[in-house]
Amino acid sequence: NAGVTQTPKFQVLKTGQSMTLQCAQDMNHNSMYWYRQDPGMGLRLIYYSASEGTTDKGEVPNGYNVSRLNKREFSLRLESAAPSQTSVYFCASSTGLRQPQHFGDGTRLSIL
Amino acid sequence: SQQGEEDPQALSIQEGENATMNCSYKTSINNLQWYRQNSGRGLVHLILIRSNEREKHSGRLRVTLDTSKKSSSLLITASRAADTASYFCWVTDSWGKLQFGAGTQVVVTP
């Protein structure tokens, strides 16, 4: 089925470890987004990519880096994981910027 | 700070009843959207209402927008157990900034 695919679905890390969250969409969307969702906080935008080759900071970019590898893929990297980054991470995509239309099912990340 | 804030935070109703939730925001907006999130899943886009619209319908959903009060409401009529989910509003302001609220958790019991 067409959509947004995130991997992995679950991950447990130790403080200081690094990892990359993968996201791919097969809808030929130009824009892609990474959000984190925390209880009582709603979704907060970490980074977004308006189009292939461009990335921009969102509301909470500190501690993260992103790569728009190609039109399909947008990865999120934690270089040195911290317990405060324990969250559920969602990738989304849309044809145009500003209105995410499709979301992945999330990556549940716990940092001990 | 969150530009879209839903109210109430939680809502429990029985099947067949209507569920109403509200979203308030702080800035001028271009449009407002509602999303649903089932437990453990990503968000699903429900409906978009533009700043020059006052009401919009989609199936059992009815969305209203009052820009003078900076608020929107989502009404789910004849609710079903499958409507159990969290509902989020999303606003796009004039500068293109985007915000989600913390959501309204709706539980529909048989």
Could you explain the architecture of this structure?
The complex is a heterodimer of chains A (112) and B (110). Chain A is mainly β. Chain A has no helices and 11 strands. Chain A has strands spanning 4-7, 10-13, 19-25, 31-38, 42-49, 56-57, 65-68, 74-78, 87-94, 102-103, 107-111. In chain A, a hairpin with a 6-residue loop joins strand 5 and strand 6. The mean pLDDT of chain A is 91. Chain B is mainly beta and 110 residues long. Chain B has strands at 4-7, 10-14, 19-25, 29-37, 43-50, 55-58, 61-66, 71-76, 85-93, 98-100, 104-109. In chain B, the strands form 2 sheets. In chain B, strands 2, 4, 5, 9, 10 and 11 form a 6-stranded mixed β-sheet that branches. In chain B, strands 1-3-8-7-6 form a 5-stranded antiparallel β-sheet, with no helix packed on it. In chain B, a hairpin with a 4-residue loop joins strand 9 (85-93) and strand 10 (98-100). The radius of gyration of chain B is 13 Å and the shape is globular. Chain B starts with a strand and ends with a strand. Classes of the chains: A mainly beta (112), B mainly beta (110). The interface between A and B is medium-sized, with 20 and 20 residues.
